[in-house]
Design a protein that fits this description.
The chain is α+β, with helices and mostly antiparallel strands. It has a domain of 80 residues: SH3 type barrels, CATH 2.30.30. The chain contains 3 helices and 7 strands; from the N terminus they run H-H-H-E-E-E-E-E-E-E. The strands form 2 sheets. The protein has a 4-stranded antiparallel sheet, with no helix packed on it. Strands 1-2-3 form a 3-stranded antiparallel sheet, with no helix packed on it. Strand 2 and strand 3 form a beta hairpin. The mean pLDDT is 81. This is Pilus assembly protein PilP.
């Protein structure tokens, strides 16, 4: 490279670096210095005037509230307490009605004072003696019969289509369970 080419390269570099210097940079520095020296404080509060509101008429105020169940559902709830097979909701629940029948286990039966009695183990670790007519299970199950190896329970279940229905289930002593 010749000396002239080097000299031209240096001059171009100086021109480019000079072009990077901003003449207004000193002006910016003076403005920032004035801001730093001025006292601070709270910014001015600007209150915005809100437009006056007007009352609107709700066209559907006579209709059913969207927060209440439709009439069909409300009537179904009323129908749940009606019917010949509807369970007595006023009756005090018995201890074994807290558990589903699948969670209860028949551990034994015995005869006491001429009556057959069954021993039922619940998931909470308790064993409860029951007789015919006692209730157990979450589906309003009532003990209909106790034999030596099983108990028969009549449950009451509600379906939307057919209302209250009875179903027969049984718990048997399982020799494999401990």
């Amino acid at each position: 490279m010749t000396r002239t080419a080097k000299l031209i390269g240096i001059m171009v570099s100086v021109v480019l670096l000079t072009a990077c210097a901003d003449a207004e940079l000193t002006q910016l520095e003076r403005t920032l210095a004035n801001i730093r020296q001025s006292p601070g404080g709270q910014p001015p509060v600007i209150a915005v005037a809100l437009p006056e509101s007007r009352t609107l008429a709700y066209l559907y105020s006579e209709d059913r509230s969207p927060f209440l169940p439709p009439d069909a559902i409300a009537q179904d709830d009323a129908n749940r307490s009606e019917g010949a097979l509807a369970p007595d909701q006023q009756r005090t629940p018995e201890p074994l009605e807290r558990f589903s029948l699948q969670d209860l286990r028949l551990v034994g039966t015995m005869r006491m004072a001429g009556r057959q009695v069954a021993m039922i183990a619940s998931p909470d670790g308790n064993v409860t003696s029951v007789k015919e007519g006692n209730y157990m299970g979450t589906d309003y199950g009532r003990i209909a019969q106790i034999s030596a190896q099983e108990i028969r329970v009549t449950e009451r279940v509600f379906t939307q289509r057919e209302g209250w229905q009875q179903r027969q289930v049984s718990l048997a002593i399982n020799e494999n369970n401990e």
